[in-house]
Design a protein that fits this description.
Blueprint (H helix, E strand, L loop, with lengths): L2 E4 L12 H22 L8 E4 L4 H4 L7 H15 L1
Length: 83
Amino acid sequence: LDIVVANAGICPMGRNQTIQSWSDTIDTDLVGVFNVVQASLPHVNDGSSIIATGSLAAQLGSATNQGPGGSAYSLAKQIVAHY
């Protein structure tokens, strides 16, 4: 592989989010990116690029993404930015 793009994101919104929807957001937005990168490592060539997409929400935090769904999305994208 010469290029790997790990692009994952869901963001359930609303005040009635469940712990399951929060967990699903972290699993998709963070663990999904991690799994793509880890699975690709044995197959990347020297000089390859691995791109993990983030979001402006990583810098803005949950202020613009109200509710548990938004906070999980912001958190996951912050961690991806440091990965």
